[in-house]
Amino acid sequence: MGGIKKKRDANFELLRVIAMGMVIALHYLYQSDSLIVLKEPLSAVKITGSLLEAFSIVSVNVWVLISGFYLSRSGFRLNRILQLLLEVYFYTLMVSLVMQMVGIYAVKADDSIFRSVQYLFPISSEHYWFATAYMMLYVLSPVLNCGIRKLTKIQLQATIFGLLLFTCLVKSFVPVNFVTDDRGYGVRWFLTLYLIGGYLRKYEVKFLSGKKRSLLLYVFSCLLSFCLLLVFYEWNWRADRFNYYFEALTHYNFILTLLGALGLFSFMRGVKLNEKGLVARASIRLSPYLFGVYLLQQHLEIKDRWIYWLEGILGKRPEQVLPFLGTFVLAIFLVF
Asked: Quick check: pTM over 0.85?
């Protein structure tokens, strides 16, 4: 979300753009009813949508890995927290004001107090869950950075493994909805990803050192997740079981989601871009506005409406695969 200062940064700014595109894709697929749902008949469009979801679900993890990779080597800046906070408040209040001015404000009399609290305290009320978790992560970053610098390699590995054990590994194999499992929608998972990003900056991981190997890890993890989704759907259809595993495959803290994110992150880390090229320059220009795209799209007044606005432009979701893919790409482009 800041400007890039080193040559390699263009690669990661492009990765941020890709990650935000994936976030928009996930929102579109969910809200346009384009995903496989248990006990509902399959269709070619829903199978295609779930395949796209499998390749996009790594987006949030990738974003936080980038943050850990860079912030672990930077000093704490209070103005950065203030900048994030002001950006959140700007979109929260600005959208609400505009909606009131045009007469389509969705607040009703019986929920006006609660909704007002969400607008006045967007971080505490989790108006935007990502902004809340990310803000808390940034506040804790000096402590995390100190640990990354001071701990030995073995100590840091043990810390990361311990966090992964409780936030990722157990839930990925044990079919129980643990009370502490937030599916990756919280600061605990973000802390884990941040430390992993810092570790990757400090130490070389041979398994992730090659572009080809990293890309294969990303593709394999996503394809395996998609195939397992189909398997668990079929088993659930026949025996009414495996509900947990079907849902867990799309959690941010599921093991395959993490592996896919590590693969894509490591692949882009090795990509070389010409800073004067069109792709690099476009990525650099777009990057500062990406967080704003999320804040605008996920505002409480917009997040359940934008899909209908898109349908007014693009029409209803097509029932054939090729037209659906065209609409899918156009929807992401228009939201950007």
From this structure: yes
